[in-house]
Every structure is written in structure tokens, then in C-alpha cells.
Write a structure and sequence with these properties.
Elements: H1 21-35, H2 47-53, H3 63-70, H4 74-84, H5 99-106, H6 108-124, H7 130-154, H8 159-167, H9 171-179, H10 183-193, H11 198-220, H12 225-232, H13 244-255, H14 258-264, H15 284-287, H16 294-305, H17 308-319
């Protein structure tokens, strides 16, 4: 499917560091698996997820309408109630016991988006270790929150889609782990062995394959085409300024910034070698995708770092297995 899956050549990253034989063999098997990808092997998602992603703004004005959709998935109901009672949304001394109470507390739009993410997590969490689930969904939530904040400034009409698309921006990596268990551990092992950042190793080792797999999955899930297309587009030269793809690319950079990662892992060592980009070091070509002042992007990064409680609470709800 994509030559970048062949990691046998050390020239791909560091010419002086030979690729471990085990890594080469494993990535070769992964490449073969993806070259003959069977869409029937991709995980299924509840049809409720598609309904939530396709909701029109007018349909999000009624708690009753939204609850009627979410009630089709009892697990989602329980998790939304739990989220409403979490430290991020809860009110001391008050208990939310019903779905409508939880939805009103979280907010109709955010409740619909969160339910969508929970259903995606339910489809993709099987087999992931708790550590990987927490890490991947924390990053997803940071991208989603960041994308929503950026859209308010750059393209207000894309705000709702930006949050949804941010949650599934890296879904291809989760799918590849579902198809080839152990891939995530291999990425981490390679990053540590080569003293490289995890995100860079992932981009080199998986390349376009992750995007191709996510594109196939999202089409199988019948998600809106504008979201599917935005998640799949990663070629900077092809991304239109202020588009949904542009918003996602910058949000992904912000989610890996020093200020956000420092807040997420405050007081503890990160379990993974991360990029830890400084806010003023967000790639110029990435920042150039938006027609907003760089200071605005930095401010959004700071705001994102202050939302760690909400990020953690939501990611925890997404990462529960079963």
C-alpha cells in the first residue's frame, strides 16, 4: 500500500543507526497486511455514531431529540452521566442521575460530539493496553479542543466539524494496531532505540498507510464526506488555507506543544518520547495554513493547556474498554 511502511533502510531516519532486525521483519509483515487490506476486517462502529456526526445545528437545540439518539447505546448513556459527574463538569454536592441532566450539564453540542467519540473508542479500544488507550485519547481530545478553538478564529462555520474531526484525526494508527497488534509497541521501541520522537517515527514508519486506512474506515462508517476528506488530507502543499484540514494540522501541532504536554504530564514523566514543541516553534509552514496572527495561535495553546481536567476526564471516558 505504501513504501514508507518498509523501515528496513536506516536512511529513512538516521543513516548511522541500523534498523533492528525485529523491527524490519515486523514492519514487513505490517506492509504485507495493509497491501491486502480486507475492509471486512476493519472494526465496525455503532450506526448511532454516524447519526451524531451528521446532526444539523437545528437538531442540537433539543435535549429530547439528542437523548433519543444517544439512548440507543446504553453504555454511552452511562459514560455521559459519569462524565457529567466528573471533576471536569461536576458540581460539588450535586449528582446528575439521568441522561437529560447530563446532556444539559455538558452542553448539547459537546454532549453529541463526546458521545460520537465514545462510540469510536468503543469500536477501537479492543486489545489496546490501558496506557496506550489513555495516551491516544488524550492526544485526540487535545487535537479536538484545539481544532475547535482555532476554528472560532479562522473558520467559524467549521467549529463543530473541527471538534469531531479532531477526535478521529489519528484514527488510522488505532486501526493499524487493531489489524496488526504490537505495532504501537514497535513504534515506541524504535523511537527509544533511535533516540527519536514518537510522532516522527510514526510518520516515517506508517507514512501514508495510516491515512489510507483511516480513509477506508471512515468511509465504511459512512461519516460525512467533509470530515473524512479533512482527516485524510495531510500533504501540506495540497491543504487549502483556513480549511478544515488546515485547522486540524495546526491543532495537531498545538497538541504536541511543550505547554500542552507539560500540563498533561505535570509532575510526572511522560511515558513516551514526545516532540514537546515550543509554542513559538510551531512549524512555520503549519502556522502559514491559517490567516490568523501567530500570537492568536499561541494564546489558543495556552488556553488548551488550561483545559487538562476536561481533556483527562473525557479521554478516560473514551478509553474504557467494552
Amino acid at each position: 500500500m505504501d513504501d514508507s511502511l518498509d523501515f528496513t533502510s536506516p536512511a529513512h531516519v538516521v543513516a548511522s543507526s541500523p534498523a533492528p532486525a525485529a523491527s524490519s521483519g515486523a514492519m514487513g509483515r505490517l506492509s504485507a497486511r495493509l497491501d491486502t487490506l480486507d475492509l471486512n476486517a476493519l472494526p465496525r462502529v455503532s450506526p448511532v455514531a454516524g447519526k451524531l456526526a451528521a446532526l444539523e445545528p437545528s437538531e442540537l437545540e433539543s435535549t429530547k431529540v439528542l437523548c433519543a439518539i444517544i439512548e440507543q447505546e446504553p453504555i454511552c448513556v452511562a459514560r455521559l452521566i459519569g462524565l457529567a459527574n466528573s471533576v471536569a463538569f461536576g458540581i460539588p454536592g450535586k449528582k446528575f442521575n439521568t441522561l437529560d441532566q447530563a446532556v444539559n450539564r455538558i452542553g448539547l453540542e459537546r454532549a453529541a460530539q463526546t458521545a460520537f467519540g465514545m462510540l469510536c473508542g468503543q469500536a477501537l479500544n479492543k486489545g489496546l493496553t490501558p496506557q496506550w488507550r489513555e495516551f491516544l485519547w488524550l492526544h485526540a481530545m487535545a487535537v479536538a479542543h484545539g481544532a475547535s478553538l482555532i476554528a472560532v478564529k479562522a473558520a467559524p462555520a467549521e467549529r463543530a466539524n473541527a471538534y469531531l474531526a479532531g477526535m478521529i484525526y489519528d484514527i488510522g494508527t488505532l486501526v493499524i494496531e487493531c489489524l496488526q497488534p504490537g505495532t504501537l509497541d514497535l513504534l515506541l521501541e524504535t523511537a527509544v532505540a533511535r533516540d527519536m520522537k514518537l510522532g516522527h517515527v510514526e510518520r516515517v514508519m506508517l507514512g501514508k498507510a495510516g491515512r489510507a486506512v483511516s480513509n477506508a474506515l471512515l468511509h465504511k462508517w459512512s461519516l460525512p464526506e467533509d470530515i473524512t476528506a479533512a482527516v485524510a488530507e495531510r500533504e501540506f502543499d495540497l491543504i487549502e488555507p483556513d480549511s478544515l484540514s488546515a485547522i486540524l494540522a495546526v491543532a495537531d501541532e498545538l497538541a504536541r506543544s511543550e505547554v500542552v504536554m507539560g500540563a498533561v504530564y505535570s509532575g510526572v514523566a511522560s511515558p513516551f518520547p514526545l516532540e514537546a514543541i515550543m509554542l513559538d516553534g510551531v512549524a512555520p509552514r503549519t502556522a502559514a495554513l491559517l490567516s490568523i496572527d501567530p500570537d492568536v495561535i499561541a494564546t489558543i495553546g495556552e488556553r488548551l493547556s488550561n483545559q487538562v481536567l476536561a481533556l483527562r476526564a473525557t479521554a478516560e471516558a473514551f478509553s474504557r474498554e467494552g
